[in-house]
Specification:
Alpha/beta knot; seven-stranded parallel β-sheet; homodimer; about 190 residues; alpha/beta; globular; binds S-adenosylmethionine
């Protein structure tokens, strides 16, 4: 590995946000998955979650432009288990939901450990997932369409979190992952 | 038209932002175009611009979920003409650009009449467009990928504008379009 690449990966790792994540419920279009993984990398997320009931999905290498090498997608076959695991990690569960009772997405404190639930392209979030969430939120819309594209909605959620975390100093370079994890990534990234 | 639909279109028109627009430079993937048009509708944009050098592109009806009926895409065959027309309307021209000299996208005042330039999926913004812009901006990224998906980047720009305009009271219902335009939309929307 060149010293430049080492320094770049090192800088990236020091800005990772291990207590921020996304859980996608059956999001299945490859271009949406690719765009979501790419945005996660850009805001410093290294691990995300996906609930899939079909045989394992694959990310398209092309449009994710390499981000799949840096963001690990953990597959779950059941949303209850997925959310259970996130709660075990002490995360608040925020569900994005097109409902009149959901609060504006900017009202949430995303500097807390947070998992953001995103729903399927056609059907949205399931009632099971909603029941397990701590709060549901909506991104305001004033037009005629009923919803945003799911990768767009994910990015808006994550960059609101980024804005709050930046203001709170959470992107200051720091060692937030274990040395073992760091060494593994450095080793794999060197190839 | 039912009274409910009339009221819905009326509410939508009163929140439109005629002095906010997007100009896409050769953005060509249908799923990106569809997602962009859908986001424009959601933040109250009724007219957007596209520079295309190929035979006229078509929006996929499916994923734009009807938003193409509410957002007009004006085609230009040359970016100089497109930007010239926007400047004639008194708009500041903000180019999104992955450059070290670009300023953070949140530093711009989007309550002013604003056109946001988005670049092509692979090649980004052309030097011609950059030279004509008033300012270039970047959305911060702390990961390993070099760029965000273009529909994601467009949405982040537009929802920053939405945040500022909401705070400035620009989404208060008001008659911002001509009666003639309003009647035309009501007529077409009734079918
Ligand atoms: C295309 S939408 C699903 C639409 C579905 N018909 C529904 O009513 O939920 C896919 C996902 O994108 C997210 N999403 C889209 N627009 C949103 C908005 N305005 N606010 C919050 N989440 C949104 C949600 O996660 C949603 O489940
Ligand atoms: C995939 S990018 C183009 C990448 C191209 N290789 C370049 O260097 O410009 C497509 C468009 O999305 C927008 N974009 C993507 N990420 C951005 C970011 N972080 N800041 C500002 N604009 C961005 C810009 O309009 C860009 O031209």
């Amino acid at each position: 590995m060149t010293p430049e690449r080492f320094a770049r990966i090192d800088q990236m790792l020091k800005r990772r946000q291990p207590d921020l994540t996304v859980c996608m419920e059956k999001v299945h279009k490859p271009h949406n998955l690719a765009a979501i993984v790419r945005t996660c990398d850009a805001v410093g997320i290294s691990d995300i979650h996906a609930v899939w009931d079909e045989p394992k999905m694959k990310l398209s290498g092309h449009t994710a432009t390499g981000s799949q090498n840096w963001v690990k997608v953990h597959a779950h076959d059941d949303v209850t288990n997925a959310i259970g695991a996130l709660k075990q990690q002490g995360m608040q569960i925020i569900a994005t939901n097109l409902s009149a009772t959901a609060v504006d997405f900017r009202q949430i404190d995303y500097t807390k450990p947070t998992a953001i639930l995103m729903g399927q392209e056609k059907d949205g979030i399931t009632p099971e997932a909603l029941a397990l969430a701590d709060q549901d939120v909506i991104i305001p819309m004033v037009g005629m369409v009923q919803s945003l594209n799911v990768s767009v909605a994910t990015a808006l959620m994550l960059y609101e979190a980024q804005r709050q975390r930046e203001a709170a100093g959470l992107y200051q370079p720091a060692d937030k992952i274990t040395k073992q994890e760091r060494d593994r990534i450095m080793f794999e990234g060197g190839h």
